[in-house]
Amino acid sequence: MRTLFSPIGTADPLTQQGDGPMLHIVRHYMPERVVLFLSPKMRDFQQSDGRYTEAIERLCASEGRPLPSIELVESSFEEVFRFDHYIEEFEGILTGLCEQSPDEPVLVNTSSGTPGWQQALVTLGSFGRLRLTLLQVTTPRRGINSRNDRENPNAYDLDTLWELNEELRQEDPDACKSRIIEVKTPNFADRLIRENVATLVGDYEYGAAYELACASQGIDDATKRVILAAANRLNLDGTLPAQVFAKSSLAYRPNDLLGEYLSVMQVRLLQRHWADFVRMLTPALTRLYKDTLQKNGLPEQAYMQVERGRLTDKLDWIKIEEDARLREAFRKLSSSKPVFITNGALEDLVEEYCHDETSKDMLEKLRLFERGCRNIIAHELRASSKQTLESCGGLALETVLQYLFDLHGNMRPHLYADISQAIIEQL
Questions:
Q1: What's the longest Cα–Cα distance across the chain?
Q2: Phi, psi dihedral angles at 228 (to 5 degrees)
Q3: What single string gives the DSSP state of each residue in 153-200?
Q4: Which CATH number does the domain 3-182 belong to among 3.30.420.40, 2.40.30.10, 1.10.10.10, 3.40.50.10770?
Q5: CB of 279 within 8 A of CB of 377?
């Protein structure tokens, strides 16, 4: 159902120049429902001679079309210049009208009434929460009104004005053309959402950014998909990122899971999630130990169990016993035969097998840092400030990350900053 919401002002329903804004919209948009908003003064005029409703009735009768349902909303608020009051009052009325008219936007006359009313209506349209079509009606002069164009509302003669109405007689084809302009307002609500999404993306909060982006009609599905892909990537879920970033320099690298992991660690450091960063160190250090041993001729298959063609996380003592050097190395590590390998054992294997002193030195410092910090955050309920963790570990957190990057040797150090920038440019 096509609904028109129209405040009523002194140019309604007619002047000697022609249709007032409300009547002109009814003439050209033919709404099935008309809701007139009356201030106390306009209400008094309507009660005295019914001029607003009668003008609509005469128009429909003259054009041989059905009369729309007409409803009067009478406001008791006297200070008609109060923009702030009418935002709230109009919002309540228009929310109800939109709920009753879900199939198409509510038409809103923004040309009648006080400047405060007009500003309030345009503001509501700009926020984009309600489905409204804002209509502006130019004067019959199609320019600035003359001082004498409007009638004395206290001595109003609808009969005479009706007979003089050029738009009713339609003798001049130009006189009956529509003077209505659909107002194209900036959607401030959507703009605010975009700015908030951009802020969240810049802070690497992709999950929250995606949820907020889904509330925006102005952010396209492709951009939402990229944000979701970034959120998944940050959780090392590479299915969607592999598709979304496949043809860019930001391509997801499933064969370099450690590199992806270290990039996530960098994000946690940038977000000041100190404890999360330190907790992530242990598996990264484990992987670097194993990779270092691989480069020095000791692959995981030499000491770890393989089942159905895949490495497990258990030591293979049969292989270890068959290799004299490996057997001797593990005998130095432990008198028992542990099931699982530890970073401590890997540290000693690196000492035995690795000949790169620079790598050994960085790994040793990382291991000392891990031992100094891990129990603090893994087994105790306590504050974990950056200063405390660095004091316990003996390294700045930024140095820890740099060592990890250097040991990996094939890093994209600003991966997520580049991802965020690409998303922001696409917004």
A1: 116
A2: -65, -40
A3: GGG--HHHHHHH-HHHH--SGGGGS--EEE-----HHHHHHHHHHHHH
A4: 3.40.50.10770
A5: yes
Four-CA torsion 270, 273, 274, 276, nearest 10 degrees: -120
Residue 63 has pLDDT above 90, yes or no: no
Amino acid of residue 67: L
Phi then psi for residue 289, to 5 deg, are: -60, -50
The residue written with tokens 């509510």 in the block is: 106
Helices 281-295, 343-353: inter-axial angle, 10-degree rounding: 30
3-class DSSP state of 106: strand
Rg, C-alpha atoms of the chain = 37
> pLDDT digits over 197-254, tens only?
999 999 999 999 999 999 887 899 999 999 999 999 999 999 999 999 998 999 999 9
> How many CA atoms within 13 Å lie on the side-chain side of 268?
21
Q: What are the structural domain ranges in the chain?
A: 3-182, 187-256+413-427, 270-409
Token output for 334? 């432990």
> Residue 214 contacts by C-beta under 8 Å, 6 or more apart in sequence?
224
CA gap 319, 334 in Å, rounded: 16
Determine which of 105-119, 136-150, 328-342 has the lowest per-residue pLDDT on average: 136-150
Rounded alpha-carbon distances, angstroms, from residue 306 to 289, 299, 301, 314, 388: 19, 12, 7, 9, 41
Alpha-carbon span 69 to 35, nearest angstrom: 8
**Nearest to residue 109, comparing CAs of 265, 238, 3?**
3
Encoding tokens for residue 350? 């690196």
Structure tokens belonging to residue 346: 């890997």
* CA-to-CA dists, residue 168 to 17, 81, 126, 217, 233, angstroms: 11, 33, 34, 41, 66
Dihedrals φ, ψ of 196, to 5°? -70, -40
